[in-house]
Design goal:
8 helices, Arc Repressor Mutant, subunit A, 0% strand
């Protein structure tokens, strides 16, 4: 049987955090994905990646929140819950630590999402087509 590197198990946990950050996911879930105890997993994760699993997961969530703040008009509370966080106050505090601005201040640095709305070309073509509303089918007025 081939030896599997411990880093490979840690990568499974990291992938889990990247894919399911918006779900109620914690360090215990990540440790289970790696097949390690919580304490051993946390030590190995920090040694391998330079940050704790909790910080890594929070960073993924805050990066996604920043993208949503830049690209949508959804409320700060909606974004907080959509990225898997449960407290708007904690979200605001963590966001300010990472981006040096509150979520509202961060959003104000970018143009509103509505200003950048892109309409797919197929929709434009469908609505730009002439509407033949003056044409009617013959209703049997011809010689029957």
């Amino acid at each position: 049987m081939a030896h599997v590197s411990p880093t490979r198990h840690l990568l499974k946990a990291k992938d889990l955090a990247d894919l399911r950050f918006s779900e109620p996911l914690g360090v215990d879930d990540m440790a289970a994905a790696a097949g390690l105890s919580r304490a051993h997993f946390s030590r190995e994760f920090r040694r391998e990646f330079g940050e704790s699993p909790h910080v890594y997961l929070l960073t993924r969530r805050l990066e996604r929140a920043a993208a949503l703040l830049r690209n949508t008009d959804r409320s700060v509370a909606e974004i907080c819950f959509d990225v898997g966080l449960t407290s708007v106050g904690s979200f605001t505090t963590s966001f300010k630590r990472m981006f040096d601005a509150t979520p509202k201040e961060y959003r104000a640095q970018f143009p509103p999402a509505a200003a950048r709305a892109v309409v797919p070309s197929c929709v434009v073509r469908a609505y730009a087509r002439p509407q033949h509303r003056t044409f009617r089918e013959d209703k049997g007025t011809a010689a029957e």
